[in-house]
Amino acid sequence: MAVQVWIGEKPEHPNERRVIMALANALHQMEGLYLILSNFSVGGRTIDLVIIKHDAIFILELKQCDGRVIGSVNGPWFVEGRNGERKRLNAGRKNPYNQVISYFHALTNFLNEHRREFLSGQKANGIDFRTCKRAVVIAPAIQDGSEIELDWKVELKGMDELPAYLITERSSEIELTEEEMLAIPSLLHCTPWHEINTVLRGLVPSTEAMLDPDELPAEGPVLAEPSADASATPALVDAPDPAGSPVPSTSLVAQVRQALGTTTGRIAAAMAVLAVILALALVLRPVRPVPLADDPPVLIVAVTGVPTGDALLMQATDLEGCLWSHAQLVGKRYDPTTRSWVSVAEGGSAASNPPEVIIALEQVSTCDGQITLTWNVQNNSDRLIEFPLDSDNIQISDSLGNEYLLDETASRPRIIQIAPGNQERGIAVAKRPLSSSATSLRIRLQDKPFGEASFVVAVQ
């Protein structure tokens, strides 16, 4: 299965449990293994949420907010309701930004200290868990009018854009096998959350197992002993009805009613509804247009540093189903202190520290037996920016692991050069047809203009 949920203790609040289930449902459809660690302690800190995948670890502070959020790096955060009343968030505790920072130090110190317990000697020498990602997540979404000022250390995400962020972003220096990933929750003394993991597998446990959620079957429903007739089909074993009533009807309606009469069945139904709501929220999010190349440069502030929540839901815009035209934006700013490019978080420091370079993947075409990428680059800095359209800088792969090399002779131009204050377009072409079985494309920038960044397009 693609997702496993591990916990130190079961979250007390129903909202936290619902969010974890909705997130697990969203990630369950993706490739590879994702581990969700919730409500566990390390270094004297109880951490809300950690997501582990093979090339990234995310340390998250989750906040349920029903209004506009006002806050910054220092000082208290507030939630403002529709009536204008403000309530302090995390009253008597650190603000969410400082909580994430404290979680980051506690967890990364632990992982660095114990890395030789689950990594080989050579691999342990080359990995640094301080590259873990940090983010404050506002559920269900960041409301318009929120004023949150953060720095490069912590990103800000709405719950509606979190799945796309988790799928596309990676941590430099972190490459883990599934065995190495699974060693981490065990070292942290987490245990599998059997109820959620069982629902994710699509299994309805036997009546006896439902009486004790901690004893749910590990692999599936209990099967009856085979009959003497070798051709007989094994049947699910039902717990005897204490009242002696007849066995329920095996019709679909009766099975649904029986499932909804159980705790696990009701949880599964509720989580399915939440997953649909989350998907609708992603679909209905407004798309941020990219300025046209012949327009004067316009400062684009509303970027997230990784593709937006629309990244996984780009819809074909032609009758052939081979042309996708919803822009995905990545904006970054150079930080002279760390000598590195940092993402500009939406609703965070974008107003006071706008992105210096913005790249938009405007269009993806898989028509005519080739893959064509249309790029738009905006340069808000005071220096020339270059964006090579070649295989050394742009890698394309699909959900099956197939790679598509660019034909550099077909790129127009070979290198996009953007003068200060200008923006330019370019086209990169891979002259190979998309696999008919592929469900998504991943486009990754390797180096220029600002280091690594990823874009994901659903192609079915």
Q: Which shape, going by the Cα principal axes?
A: globular
Strand content: 25-35%
User: Mind summarizing the main beta sheet?
Assistant: 7 strands, mixed
How many domains make up the 3D coordinates?
2
At a glance:
The chain is α+β, with helices and mostly antiparallel strands and 460 residues long. The chain has helices at 14-28, 96-114, 121-125, 162-168, 178-187, 194-200, 207-211, 252-260, 263-284, and strands at residues 3-7, 34-42, 45-53, 56-64, 68-72, 77-80, 86-89, 133-139, 147-149, 155-158, 191-192, 323-324, 328-335, 340-343, 357-365, 371-379, 385-388, 394-398, 403-404, 415-418, 423-430, 440-445, 453-458. The strands form five sheets. A seven-stranded mixed sheet has the order 10-8-4-3-2-1-11, with helices on both faces.
If you had to describe this structure to a student in words, what would you say it looks like?
The protein has 460 residues and is an alpha+beta fold. The protein has two domains: 192 residues, no CATH class; 150 residues, Immunoglobulin-like (Sandwich), CATH 2.60.40.10. The protein has a seven-stranded mixed beta sheet, sandwiched between helices. Strands 12, 13, 14, 15, 16 and 21 form a six-stranded antiparallel beta sheet that branches. It has a four-stranded mixed beta sheet with strand order 7-6-5-9, with no helix packed on it. Helix 1 packs across helix 9. The chain starts with a strand and ends with a strand. About 19% of the residues have low confidence.
